[in-house]
Structure formats: structure tokens, C-alpha cells
Amino acid sequence: MSCHDLKKGDVLVCEECGLELKVNKACNCEEEETGACTEGGFTCCGGPMKVK
Q: pLDDT tens digit string along 3-44?
């Protein structure tokens, strides 16, 4: 999951420690766009965060 998959109001949660991150403003980059957010996901406690 990258930032372009997230919408305003989505919440990411770490299943290990319970940390939650809320999307307040959606990214406007496209997956194929040059300079797009390409990190490949959000991690916490060594694992991927999931959409709540």
C-alpha cells in the first residue's frame, strides 16, 4: 500500500502496538507519476500497517 491508495479519513493501525495514523489530506499523486510516493507502504514495529 502506498499513499495514493489512501483516502481522507482512512486510519492505518499497527497490529503489534496499536499505533493509529489518520489521513487528514489525501495524496494527489498517481502510481505511475514521476516523483510519486513509491516507498511501498507504511511500517511500524517491523511489520506493515493495515487500514482499519
A: 778 899 999 999 999 999 999 998 877 666 655 566 667 889
49: exposed, middle or buried (C-beta count within 10 Å: 0-12, 13-18, 19+)? buried
- Dihedral sign computed on CA atoms, order 27, 30, 35, 41: positive
CA 18 to chain centroid, in Å, comes to 15
Phi, psi of 5 (to 5 degrees): -85, -15
CA dist., res. 42 & res. 3, Å (int): 9
Q: What is the pTM of this model?
A: 0.76
